[in-house]
Amino acid sequence: xxxxxxxxxxxxxxxxxxxxxxxxxxxxxxxxxxxxxxxxxxxxxxxxxxxxxxxxxxxxxxxxxxxxxxxxxxxxxxxxxxxxxxxxxxxxxxxxxxxxxxxxxxxxxxxxxxxxxxxxxxxxxxxxx
Length: 129
Hints:
Elements: E1 21-26, E2 30-36, H1 47-61, E3 69-79, E4 88-99, E5 102-111, E6 114-125
Antiparallel strand pairs: 1-2, 2-4, 3-6, 4-5, 5-6
GO molecular function: lyase activity
Keywords: Lyase
Protein name: Hydroxymyristoyl-ACP dehydratase
């Protein structure tokens, strides 16, 4: 891993970059990142956790030279509890299966009180048509 900054691996930029710092990346296998919740006095919108897992899954699934990618499907998303402003979250993404450019990603988001989301999604990583 050359950089801890997710922006080094993704085209996303604030306010649409939903990861703050990479902790681990094992290319083709898994990745872990941190997200500090700010600017959400009413609580963090849980659907944005899906995008966090998708962004991290794209980093985990990408191989040297890959550029681009899309969230192809949200297979399952379960949310547990409210995420408070100021909470620090750990996002994990594991590549469960790969078939060419398609990757099944299993994600989990944990916060101060335990698991706040479990998410399974499909990504297409590589050049877009």
